[in-house]
Write a structure and sequence with these properties.
Length: about 170
């Protein structure tokens, strides 16, 4: 599987779930924004200035359900803090975002795979190297296993706004 195939799957799916579990993701497209954030720029992207957020808003308006669970570890890395802050823009565009602290449940300790689930039928693992650099997508045939992992993550997570209010009010935009 390659990124083009992943894009084709995502282009037709009406339910798109993402599980993120790493403390840091090294994403070239985010490097400039992350560096600015580290320098103190806490400006959120908006649907007016970010094509991805426009895509989420536009597809949500047509009935696509975007949702994600993010498992975090404390102490938060700079990247996790940046991501939690930035998720507020995704939520404003229409994505449902849930956050769980891995320490909240023993069930979360072993959740280390990142993956997409499309329409509850297609699972794509996102393979990263040890530094958090994306390597490749990998189609997975054991859909039931990953649906179970999603259930575990969602069962122990809370909505982004609740997590920020309770755990990280300093990140509220």
């Amino acid at each position: 599987m390659d990124l083009a195939e992943l894009g084709r799957i995502g282009a037709t799916a009406t339910d798109q779930f993402r599980l993120e579990t790493l403390p840091t993701y090294l994403v070239d497209e985010e490097a400039e924004d992350f560096a600015a954030w580290q320098r103190g720029n806490r400006t959120l992207l908006t649907v007016e200035n970010d094509p991805w957020l426009q895509h989420i808003r536009d597809t949500t308006a047509t009935g696509v359900h975007w949702w994600r669970a993010r498992i975090v570890d404390y102490p938060l890395t700079d990247y996790s803090t940046y991501e939690l802050h930035g998720y507020q823009a995704n939520a404003a565009a229409g994505e449902d975002i849930y956050i769980a602290d891995r320490a909240w449940s023993a069930e979360l300790v072993e959740l280390r795979d990142d993956f997409w689930i499309f329409d509850n039928e297609i699972v794509v693992r996102m393979i990263y190297d040890e530094d958090g650099r994306f390597v490749r997508p990998e189609h997975v045939t054991d859909t039931r296993h990953y649906l179970g992992l999603r259930s575990i993550a969602i069962r122990h997570a809370v909505p982004l706004a609740e997590f920020l209010n309770r755990n990280e009010p300093r990140l509220i935009a």
